[in-house]
Amino acid sequence: MSGADTDWRRELRFTWPVLGARRIAGEHMTLAPIGLAVTAGEVQVGLDARGDRHLLLPVARSEEVHEDLRSAHVRLKRESLRVEGRVQHYADLVCHRTDLGDLFDDVVSEVLQRLAVDGGAPAHTCRQTLDAWREMFQGRGGRLATSEQRGLFGELTVLEHVLHGDAFLRPTQIWTGPDRVPHDFRLPGTWDVEVKTLGRGGSTVEIHGLDQLAPPPGGRLTLVLVRLVEDASGTSLPELAERVVAAAADSRGVIEQLAKAGYSTADADLYAGARYGQPRLLGLAVDAGFPALTPADLRGPLPPGIDALRYTLDIADRLPDALDHEEVVARLEGRSTP
Predict the structure, then answer these.
(1) At residue 316, what are phi and psi to the nearest 5 degrees?
(2) How far apart are CA 324 and CA 41, in angstroms?
(3) Within a 13 Å sphere around the CA of 240, how many CA atoms are in the beta-carbon half?
(4) Residue 121 and residue 136: Cα distance in Å, rounded?
């Protein structure tokens, strides 16, 4: 053990940018030692493919980790990673919200300080520290905006149909929207799906970035439009989330992606008021003739100084030729070829 006098907050401020510079596209986790060892090995900090921060505390294979999955924003779970050719088991404290980074670093610093004094039970120490900070995270987390709730409802609608076709698909691999990648779903057969919600008569959608309407290399992209109409007798977001969790063989995977999307069952009452009738789905193939801005249109990335691009697309003239609800559902459920 070492580090009782270390300024852990300062170490973290230095380490996160270094990890960010070392990240490799597609790599599950980029790790770095933080300068502290416990009984089962060296403590690591990490950035995952989504950019979320992790504190990884080594534990023995047989050691119990009392997971804390109550929050959508900061969670403690068991994780296994291959490090230098062997599998290492961790108590993984992860923060899914970039705007909570400073507060998360305060929690991590306190965990490290406690472990530097007594590192005999890292998972227990981490859980105790997180419990002490829980109230502050609940006050800072915030709720999903109405547009975010509708967007999540649309993605869950699509996920429910996909799982109806094959409940054993891994949600963390196919439902990629919460991972901040360009497309919401990456389905078998190199078929990507981007989901947008529409109101009763809407025909415009907001596109985020140059890659959102760029088909995957060697694959296909479908823009699935989920038309939502409020109905007091319909389904709420918490009811749909609970239904999808129950439908998946890997229910924990759905819960993990929900957390990344900012949804927590602890906040279910906040979202129970808005209800929607049976969603209707439409599908548009995004091909070379589809109106979109992609990296190919700019002949490269965005110019220096421009960090992001967002535009509104009116697809009214394409709706008459869109795949209808039955065909889209059949394709999502694997009963028809996309």
Answers:
(1) -55, -40
(2) 55
(3) 27
(4) 24
